[in-house]
Amino acid sequence: MNVEATAPDIRSARFRAEREADWLRLDKLVTQIEKMGLRSLNFEEARDLAALYRNTVNALSLAREISLDRALLSYLEALAARAYLAVYAPQATLKGLIWRLISRGIPQAVRRSATVLALAFLTMLLGGVAGYLLFVEDPTWYNTIVPSGLAGERGITSTRSQLESVLTSGGDATVDRLTAFASYLFSHNTQIALFTFALGVIICIPSTLLTFYNGLVVGAFVGLHVDRDLGYELFAWLSVHGVTELSAIAIACAGGFHLGLAVLFPGQMTRRDALRHKGRDAVKLALLAAIMLVVAAILEGFFRQLIQTPELRIAIGWGIGALWLWYFLMAGRGDPAE
Amino acid sequence: MSAASRSTEKGPKTRITEILPPEGVPINFQVAGLGARFGAQMTDIILTGLIVIILMIIVAFSEVLSGDGVVAVGALSFFMLRAPYYVACEILWNGQTIGKRLLGLRVISGDGRALSPHAITVRNLMKEIEVFVPGTYLLIASELGFVPALLLLAWITILLAIPLFNPRRQRLGDIIANTFVIEVPRPVLMPDLARGAIEVGRFTFLPHHLDHYGRFELQTLEQILQVKTDALNATARKQHDTNLQRVSEAIVTRIGYEATIPPQDTEAFLRAFYRTQRAYLENKKLFGDAREDKFHKEAEPGA
């Protein structure tokens, strides 16, 4: 009996010994990527990463079949998982993503969503007409419809001069009050937009209600001012930011409709898949609504107060509206669909 | 897509989920616990909050605005900072924010592909609805009426309960974006116990000695043998030696090994047994006779 000789390695131990150096090298590369990013690799390292990753995943698959070495299995599981995360990392830069989204993704999504957008604007318009008619029938509806925080000093008891002073105020107001007011309105409208979008999942009902209600408020508001013979001034006052802001809410609502319709009519897909599929356009509409709300807040906070003549207000408001329309219709045409 | 989640031998608290990358070899990930995710979320909220506070202090000291204006700037910037912060971080760092980095968490895509910017945007926009809007209302809860407060409570309860009722612990945004949060695995390579100087013929095992145990017992034995004895203090060392002694006695009795093992040879005996048993079981497995444990249960396919 040869007591001195050591036994030959068993199969799985040989398997491990042959590949261990590769794994350790991959481990080092992955650690480097996790610390300093994929860009820190040089050419050889990047080339080796791909090969080493595939070899390691192969080895993992093999080891699961032939090896009972727990140390090896848990190491390979963890290494393959980390390498997978490093290899399948998103490669796009933030700048490129944003540019692609703005130049192509959003306008294309808007064009694809013409139907739901029309529905959303129609809902808001109906709300507006209803609000106006309700006010004409019985002015006390105003108190029911318009939330007190939004109405400010403007109520059914206000006189013409009071209303007019609000419309033309701000020329002398301090910057302080402007920011506070703008931020209040901004957060109010963002929340409405957020809710109309997200709650659309519940088969469109909350989106419809919220957008309709938003229309009601505007309608009642218009009714009050028309009653005091201030229709034109109000139109100008609202135009500055309203064109952008109300469109933003309608667009958010259209995004919500996308989600709700996916749940209502999933077609050949399961509801979850339909939701994911429609979600691509819906999210782009939501992002667009967010951008438009920021623009509206800027318009509202500064331009509306600085510009006092109705004609100029209308020109700016609708001019920017036309720019939006041009952007939706023209941008990203001919580019591959996102 | 195999979304099968099964608890491992570590107990029902660890959740493993399988991802099938394009290479076709399933990779196992450990689903992050809700506690760690809550911790990461709080860290991020505190961080963004700090940035806002610094901004507010700068604005306040520059004396452009006063009082209400500063608060308005704060509220506005917190709102503007939130979603973009999460989206930008997760795109740049492949599914990690600063909080997730600190707690070793990461967002991954459920379909085995790279995490798409769309998925990141969706899960973080939904976070607004899930976390921040109810959170804001919670802060003013005392001013709400009874019915709105009840609605708020129902809303928060439902949203908090969703992750508890699916195996991947996905919140609503994760479900819509098809993502989930995992713990970043830490690979540690322990030495191969089947290698190294093992003398031929010192301990001889015959086939009837090796038919008693399965994978589970073998790997348990491996765990005991992998203990780094240098790192133990005197008491722990003694305990470890006693454990080895008891394990070796149990094995000798169970397999009916004829010779007695002197105490100083315990570890050598266990190593020799481990190596022979492993070779035997691996051979059996190659021929289709995988033994999961000593009851000779059929191993689960793919386990």
Can you characterise this structure?
The complex is a heterodimer of chains A (338) and B (303). Chain A is 79% helix and 0% strand. Chain A has helices spanning 11-36, 43-66, 70-87, 94-112, 114-137, 141-145, 148-151, 160-168, 175-198, 205-227, 231-264, 271-306, 310-330. With 303 residues, chain B is of the alpha+beta class. Chain B has a 5-stranded antiparallel β-sheet. The longest helix of chain B has 29 residues, at 34-62. The radius of gyration of chain B is 28 Å and the shape is elongated. Chain B starts with a strand and ends in a 17-residue tail after the last helix.
User: Which of globular, elongated, flat, extended, rod-shaped describes the shape of chain B?
Assistant: elongated
- Number of extended strands of chain A: 0
Q: Terminal Cα separation of chain B, in Å?
A: 18 Å
Within the largest sheet of chain B, what's the order of strands?
1-2-3-5-4
Give a short synopsis of this structure:
The complex is a heterodimer of chains A (338) and B (303). Chain A has helices at 11-36, 43-66, 70-87, 94-112, 114-137, 141-145, 148-151, 160-168, 175-198, 205-227, 231-264, 271-306, 310-330. By secondary structure, chain A is mainly alpha-helical.
Topology:
The complex is a heterodimer of chains A (338) and B (303).
Chain A: H1 11-36, H2 43-66, H3 70-87, H4 94-112, H5 114-137, H6 141-145, H7 148-151, H8 160-168, H9 175-198, H10 205-227, H11 231-264, H12 271-306, H13 310-330
Helix pairs in contact in A: 1-2, 1-3, 2-3, 4-12, 4-13, 5-10, 5-11, 9-10, 9-11, 9-12, 10-11, 11-12, 11-13
Chain B: E1 5-8, E2 11-19, E3 27-31, H1 34-62, H2 68-92, H3 98-102, E4 105-109, H4 117-139, H5 146-161, H6 172-177, E5 179-183, H7 207-210, H8 215-225, H9 234-255, H10 266-286
Antiparallel strand pairs in B: 1-2, 2-3, 3-5, 4-5
Helix pairs in contact in B: 1-2, 2-4, 4-5, 8-10
